[in-house]
Amino acid sequence: MNKKWIKRISLSIVAALGISCTLGEFADAKTNQSQYVQQNETAESFTKSDPELYQGALDLGLSDNDIYTLDSLFDKEEKVTAQNVFLVAMGIITGMAAVVGTGYGAGRYIAKQLHKRKQLSKKYYKKHRWKFRAALVPVIGIAATFGFDDYYMDI
Q1: Of all residues in the chain, what percent are helix, strand and coil, respectively (each to 5)?
Q2: Are the beta carbons of 90 and 17 closer than 8 angstroms?
């Protein structure tokens, strides 16, 4: 798989995640809005039950609706959803694909420059490829070494 396809797949995954997250957030907001309206009608606000705190909120220029909103945000429990875990996992995978793709491209670029400047011939590389591979991995990394090797092996 070449760099162009890795980039296309990564962008497709990010776009799909962005669309699904946006739609999921709209659905959550709609659900939370109906729960918020029911809570306002039935439950008393924590801030309203404390006269000093309530007066301080009014002095700041907050309306009753603002006070209810703030109280509901403080009371809201953050729940881990499968969507959050999926987003984190896809972010990690996309980041790794970008790093590997960049390293692979860098290795090919290094090999191309060495070949163009007549510093290393393909014949010499093929004869001593295991020495080059062993020397390159700790210096430029595995992904870049694959790119370097693919260039000289005509892959």
Answers
A1: 85, 0, 15
A2: yes
The predicted pLDDT at position 83 comes to 66
| pTM of the predicted protein model | 0.47
**Per-residue three-class SS string for 34-100:** HHHHHHHHHCCCHHHHCHHHHHHHHHCCCCHHHHHHHHHHHHCCCCCCHHHHHHHHHHHHHHHHHHH
- Residue-wise pLDDT tens digits, 29-69: 555 555 555 554 445 556 667 777 777 777 777 777 777 77
Closest CA to 76 of 18, 31, 121: 31
Q: Whole-angstrom Cα distance, residue 134 to residue 72?
A: 60
Query: Considering only CA atoms, which of 154, 97, 86, 155 is closest in space to residue 123?
Result: 154
